Amino acid sequence: MKFLNKLEAKLGKYAIPNLSLYLILCYAAGYLIQLVNSSFVSYLTLNPYAILRGQVWRLVSWVLIPPGSSNVFFLLIMMMLYYSLGTNLERTWGTFYYNVYIFGGILFTVLASFLLAGWLAVFDFPKVNDLALMIRGINPQGMGTLAKMQVWYQYDFWILFSTYYINMSIFLAFAATYPDMQVMIWFIIPMKVKYLGIVYVVLMVLDILQMGWLLAFTIGASLLNFIIFFMMTRRRPRRTLKQRKRQMEYRHAAKPKGGITRHKCAICGRTEEDDPTLEFRFCSKCEGNYEYCQNHLFTHEHVKRN
Fold first, then answer.
1. What pLDDT digit, counting tens, does each position of 86-105 carry?
2. Residue 301 lies in a domain
3. How far, in Å, CA of 165 to CA of 65, rounded?
4. In whole angstroms, what is the distance from residue 11 CA to residue 5 CA?
5. What's the CA gap between 189 and 26, in Å, rounded?
6. Cα gap 183→229, rounded to integer Å
7. Quick one: which of 106, 144, 150, 179 has the fewest CB in 10 Å?
8. Which strand (E) or helix (H) includes residue 185?
9. How crowded is residue 271: how many other Cβ atoms within 10 Å of its Cβ?
10. Is the pLDDT of residue 57 over 90?
């Protein structure tokens, strides 16, 4: 946590606000690509063998592939749901922490794909010969090892490294942050988010039992950011929507004139001018008048005069 606080002080100004909106726009672009030319999606997947052969755009293009149903109605519902969840997480954690959470999940997924590619190259692909390639309809003549592995594993595994589990990590993070918030299933059945989170976990376990260690590896890599952040942010204060709205109204009413700020975080330096939703408190354990925003109130190192 201290490392992230220091990192935020240096790089916090580069954090991307409203990151969930950009993710949704990526999904919309990917869905349009599927409608226009579905075969082109194979050039967007996260395939390490193709990346090592020069197709470096795959490092980021796989984020365009939308998770979930091909039905446009359910896709729109999914987009609105994850936009709402991500926006609320960003308001609760702060823009920088939410950026680290999302990009961390993407980075862990990319690293996991390369680890799996190395494992298959060492233990699985040596069993594949040219005859097996020809049976699958692949002409191995003049192809290098990387090219053979690229076409052999083109569709087998890399489709599992998708944004589906990245989105699931967003939902689980929301369930851990707001466990008692109630949502309407199919717009009819009321249910608390924490119970939906349990259902998601059970479904993941069933999928793993059905597909084996490969899916377990994929899920573990995609949800590693959730495990790390849950351990690091479980003590963060939680605010309801009404509390955030009241806080915003208070900040607007108490906004000082002449550009002078009333509050400033001793860690990140942010003021109410940077984010009207921020809460500021003085720490009773610090020796001196040190004020902190809600992101650092419970995580900072207490200041001692000696």
1. 888 888 888 888 898 899 88
2. no
3. 12
4. 10
5. 31
6. 23
7. 144
8. strand 182-185
9. 17
10. yes
Residue with tokens 């003021």: 271
- List helix spans (H) across 192-236: 193-211, 213-222, 224-233
Residues 159 and 207 placed together within one structural domain of the fold: yes
What is the reported pLDDT for 56?
Answer: 92
On whether residue 303 sits in a domain, the answer given is no
For residue 202, being part of any structural domain is answered with yes
The answer to whether residue 188 is domain-embedded is yes
Regarding whether 255 and 186 lie in a shared domain, the answer is no
The boundaries of the domain holding residue 276 are 241-293
What total number of domains does the chain contain?
A: 2
The residue among 201, 233, 265 that closes a domain is 233
* Cα-based distances in Å from 173 to 147, 201, 220: 39, 12, 15
How many angstroms separate the CA atoms of 7 and 12, rounded?
Answer: 7
Closest CA to 9 of 291, 265, 276, 287: 265
Residue 91's closest CA among 246, 247, 300, 244? 244
Q: Find all residues with CB under 8 Å of 120, minimum gap 6, and list them.
A: 149, 153, 157
Please state the length of the chain: 306
Tokens of 91: 């308001």
Rounded CA-CA distance 207/173 in Å is: 20
- Residue 27 sits in the same domain as residue 52: yes
Helix (H) or strand (E) holding 253: helix 241-253
Return the SS3 of 94. coil
Mean pLDDT comparison of 77-81, 109-113, 214-218, 261-265, highest-scoring range: 109-113
Q: Using the 8-state DSSP alphabet, how is residue 137 labeled? A: T
Q: What contacts 24, CB < 8 A, 6 or more positions away?
A: 79, 82, 83
In angstroms, rounded to a whole number, what is the distance separating the alpha carbons of residues 212 and 222? 16
| Lowest pLDDT segment from 54-58, 209-213, 238-242, 243-247 | 238-242
Q: What is the CA radius of gyration of the chain?
A: 23
